[in-house]
Amino acid sequence: MDLCHVPTAREKGWYLALMAPNVKGSNYAWLDPSRLYCHPQGLQDCLSDLLQPFQGDPVDMVAGIDAMGFILGAAAAARLQKGFLAIRKAGHLCVQTQAQPYTDYSGREKVMEVRIDAISPGLRILLVDQWVETGGTMRAAIKLVEQLGGVVAGVAAICIEDSEGGRWIQERYKCAHCVPPHLQPHFNRHQ
């Protein structure tokens, strides 16, 4: 799809066609949404779809997950006129942090951290990431927020796969993603 073309009929998820398949091998995600971010209307419609379920909900801050969640998270924070919190891979913050180990979608053991002075008890945080594959990364972010007394106001991602971890998150938290139900089977790679 041309990066300047905007379809006349824009059904939910039309911008998913902008994403490119992985051509670099198993160390990379199977689909790359970064091309979607280059398309001005695609990015705006994606944000609208992600944030629509949270209209009227109390959200105090948006947190994006390292690294691609920073793009959507910061854009969502700007749209909602809220602050943005970066949840980082360990070793990138020079302030006091709370850390949480996790296993990512590729099966690698990692550690995520967040600055402890940004989350106060009761603060309602919308967690945003690009993709929820197996749910390990998002579950670590949820644990960090809750360990510091914050409340997860919701989870938003371009896709939440129908994996065990994705279902666990959707059963416990208000969630939004951009994949229409009839296309969901095509986006599930980590079952």
UniProtKB/TrEMBL annotation:
Pathways per UniProt: Purine metabolism; AMP biosynthesis via salvage pathway; AMP from adenine: step 1/1
CDD domains (alphabetical): PRTases_typeI (cd06223)
Keyword field: Cytoplasm, Glycosyltransferase, Purine salvage, Transferase
InterPro entries from the UniProt entry: Adenine_PRTase (IPR050120), PRTase-like (IPR029057), PRTase_dom (IPR000836)
Domain Phosphoribosyltransferase: 58-175
Localisation per UniProt entry: Cytoplasm
One GO CC annotation: cytoplasm
GO BP: purine ribonucleoside salvage
Protein EC: 2.4.2.7
GO molecular function, one term: adenine phosphoribosyltransferase activity
Reaction(s) catalysed by this chain's protein: AMP + diphosphate = 5-phospho-alpha-D-ribose 1-diphosphate + adenine
Coiled coil: none
Family indicated by similarity: Belongs to the purine/pyrimidine phosphoribosyltransferase family.
Assembly: Homodimer.
Name this polypeptide is given: adenine phosphoribosyltransferase
Organism: Eubucco bourcierii (red-headed barbet)
